[in-house]
Design goal:
Layout (H helix, E strand, L loop, with lengths): L4 E3 L15 H13 L4 E3 L4 E8 L2 E8 L6 H12 L5
Length: 87
């Protein structure tokens, strides 16, 4: 099964913006830029999200705007809604 969702983990807030804790955000920002898929606020998923298509298949990008230990809430909400299996 092709990848359907890429999640970049980090911690929200200016105090974490330039720390190693946000390496996942940095990577996802680079992927989004390379794919021309700008991230936007999605309150339903408690994060920043973009949707793009690769080889005719949808791909979601997600940066949860919860602290890392609560990021599952954001990921689960998006995965449930779009029926993305955990595998």
């Amino acid at each position: 099964m092709p990848i359907q969702l890429i999640v970049g983990l980090g911690n929200p807030g200016a105090e974490y913006a330039h720390t190693r804790h946000n390496a996942g955000f940095w990577l996802l920002d680079a992927i989004a830029q390379d794919l021309g898929a700008p991230l936007r606020v999605e309150k339903n998923y408690r994060g920043l999200m973009a949707r793009t298509t690769i080889e005719g298949r949808p791909l979601w990008l997600l940066e949860p705007q919860t602290f890392m230990n609560a990021s599952g809430q954001s990921v689960a909400a998006l995965a449930r809604f779009f029926k993305i299996p955990p595998q």
